[in-house]
Amino acid sequence: MKWIYVILFIGLLAISSSPVIARLLPLVPAVVIAFWRMIFASAMLWGYSSIRPQESIEPKNIRLIVAAGFLLAMHFIFWFSALKLTSIANTTILGIVAPAFTLLFERLWYKRKLSWITITALLIILVGGIIVQGNDLGSVNGTGLGNIMAILSAVFLGSVFIIGAKVRKSTPVITYTRTVYTISAIVLLASSLVLDNQLMGYSINNYFWLFMLGLVPTLIGHTAFSYSVKFVSPTVIAAVPLGEPIIASYLAWLLFAERTPFYVLGGGLIVFIGMVILIMNKQSE
Predict the structure, then answer these.
(1) Burial level of 78, CB count in 10 A (0-12/13-18/19+)?
(2) Residues in Cβ contact with 89 at an 8 Å cutoff, skipping those fewer than 6 apart
(3) Residue range 160-218, pLDDT digits in tens
(4) Where are the domains of the chain?
């Protein structure tokens, strides 16, 4: 099973490019970025399926896949919106708390008990998240709102991993991801129209980076996670992006001279420690 961790590492590198690429699209609304990301990714998967036909979805999984597509759309709406309001470091640090939510969802869904180690780890993560908020704690404007959106994006992503773990037991990865991405794109299209966002008329350079979002972090990154969730716990899958804040923050500093405040680094370290305890305890169960 060591090969699955190679796939997860490749997925980590791929998704770490997402906030950096999104920074190159300052004039494109968050929902529109998410829409084109899903459109390009789903189009490539459907194109592949036309060459190599895939199995169909079992009727029992249709509602779950629709739910996963909707939740993924919500994840991207909140995540890209957060990135417009707060730093790459804040967005990625607060956006990696998905394992905490997958664990809570597993507790509610599968009625699994939480050990004292798990509860301690969750409290450590909570403290780290509060520190990352800093002076923006409780604020619903600007950076504070962006931080809240980043956390909410993690809630939605954790939900997607939980559903994926169930559906992928009987559904091939291409069949699953192409359908989830397509449903997500439809939800994002509807959201863009409701918000009266401009969908067309951007520069060739913008469309190139929108395509790269569909190819690298989505087709390679998220598909790697969707593939792996059949073989390892959704909580472990959700923990793989632990390395994203480090990679993305370094790239943000290198490319955009975006510095990370000391309290964000400290809070991020505490979140990281809590997540490591959480995952190590999960793997030992």
Answers:
(1) buried
(2) 245, 248, 249, 252, 258, 260, 264, 265, 268
(3) 888 888 898 888 889 999 999 999 999 999 999 999 999 999 999 999 999 999 999 98
(4) 2-284
